[in-house]
Amino acid sequence: MPDEQIKTMDYKQAGVDIAAGEQAVKAIKERVRSTYNANVLSELGSFGGLYRIDKTAWTKPVLVSSTDGVGTKLLIAIKAGVYDTVGQDLVNHCVNDILVQGALPQFFLDYIGVGKLMPDMISGIIDGFVKACRENSCALIGGEMAEMPGLYQSGDFDLAGTMVGMVEESQLLPRSNMKPGDVVLALPSSGLHTNGYALARKVLFEVMALELDSYVEELSCTLAEALLAVHKSYLPILQPYLQNPGLKALAHITGGGIAGNLKRVLPRGLKIEIDLPAQDLPAIFQLIQKNGNISSAVMRQTFNLGIGMICILSPELAENIQAKHKARYLGEVQTGSDAAQVEFK
Question: Which residues pair with 144 in a beta bridge?
């Protein structure tokens, strides 16, 4: 090919706009900085986030970390053009995951992968991160924003996040003093949270032929409002009780449902029988089950069924929490076989 016919190419022509990426980082810097505390030593854009451990606040601290995503709830956010709620979902999910081990969140790192950098999308996602980090008293100290045309279509994006927290070694959960007679309480979820969306979308959009802007009488809101309800953080409710010896264990109800997650904190030789009548399920779960003709067993494996966090407590502390936070009684810890068991009445 003659030299004059050779065209100079750059990264932007290949679909990656470096200048737009730098502008996006610049645009979010002040909002991200609003989550900082005295322990943050780095600025956004550093190769790594620097976070100092306050030695005066901890005696024998243990770092607790968790990484997660938002799943196919992102498809709802993309279709609705609403991005801040999934940002909050990601932070709150990770906060709850370390909370079940008694840890307080310290800092958060994010990953955003996009097909094409769109300022409104990035701004909305970051707004969600910032809001949730401030509400959970943790710092957003860094992350990755990757523009990858070909891997993601224009308008698509993916999220992942890592939360790092700390707990005194002596206060790690679950505690070893769990015993028969301890009470099992449930704190309500705000909806599907971030699990079960593949099945929910199939029933609601394909079987029922609903649209996101469809007003659903049973839900008293649009479908978009119900499906994008923010994954609740249980830190504000549970933080005052984390050092109370009457709090024996916590289970964040995510993928695998109530039984799958409760087994993770239940010692060998103990069992729990859950009392959760089908008619008491929140409307969104009844709607999905009825119209999808889904068995109770599949519902229990797939969804949180209106329960976001389960607490195992001494009877005295259970009475206190039930009165203050409208927690729901699910049952009691009982003597069981060698393997930990969770059953439904």
Answer: 111
Question: How many residues does this entry show for the chain?
Answer: 345
Cα(334)–Cα(337) distance, rounded to whole angstroms? 10
The CB density around residue 337, as the number of other CB atoms within 10 Å, is: 10
Of 91, 89, 85, residue with least CA distance to 106: 91
Element of type H or E holding 18: helix 18-33
Q: Which residues of the chain carry a pLDDT beneath 70?
A: 1-25, 340
Distances (CA, A) of 317 to 12, 102, 321: 60, 16, 6
Report the C-alpha gap between 70 and 66 in whole angstroms: 13
- For the segment(s) 183-344, the CATH number from 3.40.50.300, 3.90.650.10, 1.20.810.10, 3.30.460.80 is 3.90.650.10
**Which residue, among 188, 179, 115, has the nearest Cα to 315 in the 3D structure?**
179
Q: Which segments of 70-119 are extended strands (E)?
A: 104-114
Tell me what pLDDT residue 255 has: 92
Q: How far is CA 14 from the centre of its chain?
A: 34
Q: Are 113 and 157 in contact (CB under 8 A)?
A: yes
* Domain residue extents for the chain: 8-171, 183-344
Domain 8-171 and domain 183-344 have a common topology: no
CA of residue 96 relative to chain centroid, distance: 7
**Whole-number pLDDT of residue 18:** 57
Residue type, 65: S
Question: So what's the pLDDT on residue 46?
Answer: 85
Give pTM, 2 decimals: 0.92
Q: What pLDDT digit, counting tens, does each position of 326-341 carry? A: 899 999 999 988 776 8
pLDDT at 326: 86
Beta strands in 149-260 (DSSP E): 157-168, 183-188, 215-216, 221-222, 247-252
DSSP-based three-state secondary structure for 104: strand
For the domain covering 8-171, report its CATH number: 3.30.1330.10
H/E element, 127: helix 119-135
Q: Which two tokens stand for residue 340?
A: 């930990």
The CA-atom distances, in angstroms, between 50 and each of 33, 36, 134, 235, 300 are: 13, 11, 18, 24, 41
Three-state DSSP at 261 gives: helix
Angle at which helices 119-135 and 18-33 pack, to 10 degrees?
Answer: 20
